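Note to self: the last two entries modelled the partners one at a time, which told us nothing about the interface. This time every component goes in together.
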Amino acid sequence: MITWKRIKLENFSFPKIYDYKKEFIRLEEELPLGIRLDKIYDTVDKTKINWLNTSEGNGLGKEFISFVNEFYNSGVSLYLERNSLIEKPIVVEFNMDKENPTVVDKNIIVAEPNSQATIVFDYSTDEGVEAFHNGFTEIHAGENSSLTIIKVQRMNDISQNFDTNIAYVKGEGKVNWITAELGSQISGSNFTTFLDEVASESNLSSIYLGDGHRKMDLSYSMIHKGPRSISNIESRGALMDNAKKVFRGNLDFKRGSRLAKGGEEEYVLLLDPTVKSDSIPALLCEEDDVQGEHAASAGQINENQLFYLMSRGLSEREAKKLIIEGAFRPVIDRIPLEELKQIIDSEIERRLVNA
Amino acid sequence: MERKKTYIEDIDRGIYDIKNEFTYKYKADKGLTPEIVKEISKEKNEPKWMTDFRLKSLEIYNSMPIPTWGPDLSDLNIEDIVTYIRPDAEMKHSWDDVPEEIKKTFELLGLPQAERESLAGVGAQYDSEVVYHNIRKELVDQGVVYMDMETALIEYEDIVREYFMTLVPPTAHKFAALHGAVWSGGSFVYVPEGVDVDIPLQSYFRLNAPGAGQFEHTLIIVEKGSRLHFIEGCSAPKYKVNNLHAGCVELFVKENATLRYSTIENWSKNMYNLNTKRAVVDKNGTIEWVSGSFGSKVSMLYPMSILKGEGARSEFTGITFASQGQHLDTGTKVVHAAPYTTSTVNSKSISKDGGYAFYRGLLKVAPNAYGCKSTVSCESLMLDNKSKSDTLPIIELNNDNIDIGHEAKIGRISDEAIFYLMSRGISEEEAKAMIVRGFVEPITKELPLEYAVELNNLINIELEGTIG
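The predicted structure of the combined assembly is written out below.
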């Protein structure tokens, strides 16, 4: 039984997990040499790659991670050899329907030095299906590698979503996270990045939209261990109706992370008097020669902007939608799939205008 | 260049560390039982409702767990702490009548001099009881009451009964319950409607006995349209055993009233300072907190403002200086419970020599508190990498018509700034001290003058040769 006080997840226990029988890897062309993408069943043999010895970080909690390790029914393992590169994004998509209502995915991505890739994970549901997702994505980014991981969650309002993401970044390696949280009744997601060596880098951009009775617990951690490591968290969200969100941002400078820099910014637009918005931005520091900064702000849509748009003949809903889209746009534009961008746009439109 | 290294043990805490011989008239046994609590109440000739209140608090105390979310309190054993010590002195209203030993302590701390020069009234507490209390006659004539809690409990029983521990109920947390059971001493201030007390009142709390606890209770009621500045100073000499300070401050600020509450805590580094302070502010009232935490081994101190009336305002200015062996967990809580309330939080911390400064804050906006505004700003400066500095501000918003901003920064003194100052002919040490003084300046200017001077001296002593 699991209880999360802030989003009132009480006495939660895991549902029965069914097999996920659909294809979830979408490949439009052959993978270049040196890149191996498999379903998790023939997983990366961690013992063969000697630098994968780390397993720090609790993500959403030990219960959620060990549940994935025990009951996973899908997921990918991606192995990038030294100097390998793939330009087109790799797409992993899960669509939960009546026959396949549960996804428990375990993903491992290993990027050897100087490799580069972009991976998109898309989680969606059919209308009316009470779906359940609990995932665990583990990333090992080698020296000077560059990975971009995009997670889009647009499940329906009666589903549950839990997702843990942990990355370990070596010297001058770089992990970029882009996350869009647009759906599900209850959603808990955690992104933890260990900046383990000199000049490791990670950037996280997140957008979220809470409407209806949605409850979200979003937690982003950057753990600086390496000197000159760099991190940046940027989160933009909008809350309406009776939605509730908890934002947790942690910048943790461990001893030895000399000259590290970390920044964290959260901005949330509050659209209805009934929303609930908690923010817990923590700044932890054991090293003096670092720069850490966080800022959180919350407020309503600027009335002047709204008035201007409405004076041009837009309805209030449309005007608000435009302003929210404007706030989300920089993050959405970073998603490299035209098709997915459009899906996100129309999803936001549906929720804001047609609600 | 050879650098001087100063450590905290080397610094002469001077007047703060002068110990008096430990003499007392009555001392409770160590530990905590209903018998001891009854004994304290009997010794003080309290009305029955207070004795019952103490016993009820003791029950609550025994039923509550020790908080585990903050600093480690496992070294603190209540069984080893003497909860009540009556010093060998009666309460005096004339300074000359205070016993020589005790008088000397406070004179060294500058208390009577401060009274003559710049205060409207002074109270001095030594161990568990108040030994001296005085207030200017003009204020008495206007109906201002300033006395020790024990006397107030007899002379103003109705008022005390109406307010006592209603804002910080014994159920708030374990140490509030402990306070409810064994409280002793402290000040009672009542400012009637429309009185402007233009010079500050000051209470000074001194804990002399080793292995003892101080549990003073401060109750201040500022009626409609009145104004008051209250200063609280605390210190204790260092002993090898742990001392405990679990005081309680309850402030009631009525319509259009203003209260400024300044505290300088300079407890010795064997003190557990687990103090609870709360203020409730009515319509258009203002509470201003100025809080300096320098001493103690462990501090858990989060003054709380409850903005209950429309247009109420709170302002918090705090500085925490954590040095070797200190874990200072401080911050503030603000609850916006009414429309158009505003709050400002400005907190700074410095940690050095393995000190651990933790800012822990809460900002809560209730569903009906529309139109409220708040800004929170926290800055931390670390002077070496043996130290630690954490910031954890929690923000809970329950409506949309608000304007909230929060900022926090951490870092060290930038090399460019030092280089710039050195290029102007200032030595490296002096440049660093200048920058630190500049960092705390917005806070020091809020402190009463003698404390501001003291803080600057402290920074000079503590910084000499230690950074870089």
